[in-house]
Design goal:
This protein is α/β, with parallel strands linked by helices and 248 residues long. It has nine helices and ten strands. The protein has helices spanning 44-51, 74-79, 97-107, 114-128, 143-156, 173-188, 200-206, 224-228, 231-246, and strands at 6-15, 18-28, 33-37, 59-64, 67-68, 82-84, 161-165, 192-196, 209-214, 217-222. The N and C termini lie far apart (50 Å). The mean pLDDT is 92. The structure holds adenosine-5'-triphosphate (ATP) and magnesium ion. The site of magnesium ion has 4 residues, from helix 1.
Length: 248
């Protein structure tokens, strides 16, 4: 039997007294897309950070394609075929857009040579719509293009498992559909995807299954339509957003 591409069991991460992530368990079969939603501060980015080695778990287990990578370093996780974007973009500032993508290509599961990395960077930059910006410095990019660079760097790792943390943030409405098309195309190629987004329509359109986090815990999970119709989700998620809009 093939193991799920991602299996997380009882994952917990505390920051002092705060349980940013509490006893979270989830399975994502190979080739499927999991959408993760939840109010601000519900633990979405922490889940990605703990699974990809950027934060150590306090307790729990992370299995990637059946391999125990609990607490592994980020580069070990990347070498295992896992790509990710950061919610706060993190390019190498002293390198061009193209060089940033080439570095990722050489660090991926396949460890591309410089010549291969150049070709891969050209393909990936075209795919995310950054071909025209390849020679620029990351600091010169718009907010939306900086997010595209994050995505390009993650794709240059040639991941089998890809975590996307709010890659649609900062995109104009007309730019969202092409981004969703790209996510669907990656899924069609067999990439397993975990997508964190506040744009509920986007989550419903690309996800096979949706996980809802609330105060670090799993509130519910299941097919997108059923989850989005769940009164607890509407209360926890939309209620919070309405409260934010009215309050802060
Ligand atoms: N490095 C850290 N040190 C201390 N607290 C942290 C750290 N990272 C996250 N937290 C806290 O953990 C909780 C979960 O944060 P996280 O970033 O995972 O939320 P999120 O669901 O991604 O929110 P958002 O939608 O705003 O991105 C929050 O209360 C946050 O303040
Ligand atoms: Mg976050």
């Amino acid at each position: 039997m093939t193991p799920p591409m991602l299996e997380v069991r009882g994952l917990t991460r505390r920051f002092g007294g705060l349980a940013a992530l509490s006893e979270v368990s989830v399975r994502v079969p190979a080739g499927r897309t999991l959408g993760v939603i939840g109010p601000n501060g519900s633990g979405k980015s922490t889940l990605i950070n703990v699974v990809t080695g950027h934060l150590k778990p306090t307790s729990g287990t992370v299995l990637i394609n059946g391999r125990d990578l609990t607490g592994a370093r980020p580069w070990t996780v990347a070498k295992a075929g896992v790509g990710r974007t950061f919610q706060v973009v993190k390019p190498f500032r002293g390198m061009s857009v193209r060089e940033n993508v080439m570095v990722a290509a050489t660090y991926g599961a396949h460890g591309r040579t410089a010549a291969d990395a150049a070709g891969l960077a050209t393909d990936v930059l075209a795919r995310v719509g950054l071909a025209g910006q390849a020679g620029r410095a990351p600091a010169e990019l718009s907010v939306a293009d900086a997010r595209r660079l994050e995505l390009a760097r993650a794709l240059a790792l040639e991941p089998r498992l890809l975590f996307l943390d709010e890659v649609l943030a900062g995109l104009r409405p007309a730019e969202i559909d092409p981004a969703l098309d790209l996510i669907r195309a990656l899924a069609a190629e067999g990439v397993t995807i975990v997508v964190v987004e506040h744009v509920v329509r986007a989550i419903v359109e690309v996800s096979d299954e949706v996980l809802v986090l609330h105060e670090g815990k799993v509130l519910t999970s299941g097919p997108p339509d059923r989850v989005m119709a769940d009164p607890r989700v509407i209360e926890a998620y939309l209620g919070h957003r309405y409260a934010r809009r009215g309050g802060a």
